[in-house]
Amino acid sequence: MPTWWDKQTWEFVNTFAPWLSAIGTIAAVGFSLWLARARSRVRLKMSVDARFIVEPTSEGYKKSDDYIAFWITNIGETEATVTVIGWLGRAGFKRQYAQQNLGEGPYAGPSLPHKLKFGEELRLLIKLEEHWLDSMSDGMLGRIPWLTGRLLRAVVWTSIGQSFKVRPDHSLISRLLEHAKKRRRA
């Protein structure tokens, strides 16, 4: 046996054992608390875009009205209650919030607040009308629409005060920017 493994060396090496076990215990407790907290958090996946409805007629199919589509899916294990949907934008340097009213009609979807269990999906369609485009381009896009259009976010608020933000799809942003350009020319 080598001479460097004498009794004094073993005693020195064994002084690290309690420290390593303490560090391992603290890491295990921290990891278990992180797992427990991650399971209880509300997690939503969402997308927002512009769509149109195709309706059957006696001659075939025709394009119906344009809509803003909110798709919200609960991907967490905790039940989520969606209370409000809206928008976050910037008009210049000032942050702007707007609450979105839900549409009516056959395609509107359920009313809010709406509970979502794990894996459930909420689909909301809001009719895309001229006055909505006017108020959004004036109130949310401001004087520099090409820049503030990139900062526009759709927001979903839950009953526990948690909010989820997503950038709207290019189809909706391009419609807003196009409308803003028309209003500037007029």
SSE map:
Blueprint (H helix, E strand, L loop, with lengths): L6 H8 L1 H25 L3 E14 L2 E15 L5 E12 L2 E6 L14 E3 L4 E7 L2 H12 L3 H7 L1 E6 L4 E4 L3 H16 L1
Antiparallel strand pairs: 1-2, 2-6, 3-4, 3-5, 3-7, 7-8
Helix pairs in contact: 3-5, 4-5
Keywords:
single chain; alpha+beta; Immunoglobulin-like; 2 domains; three-stranded antiparallel β-sheet; 37% helix
Describe this entry's structure for a reader:
There is one protein chain. By secondary structure, this protein is an alpha+beta fold. The chain has 2 domains: 32 residues; 144 residues, Immunoglobulin-like (Sandwich), CATH 2.60.40. 37% of the residues lie in helices and 36% in strands. It is built from 5 helices and 8 strands. Strands 3, 4, 5, 7 and 8 form a 5-stranded antiparallel β-sheet that branches. α3 packs across α5. The chain is elongated and about 95 Å long. The termini are far apart. The model has no long low-confidence stretch (mean pLDDT 86).
Summarize, please:
The protein has helices at 7-14, 16-40, 130-141, 145-151, 170-185, and strands at 44-57, 60-74, 80-91, 94-99, 114-116, 121-127, 153-158, 163-166. It has 186 residues and is an alpha+beta fold.
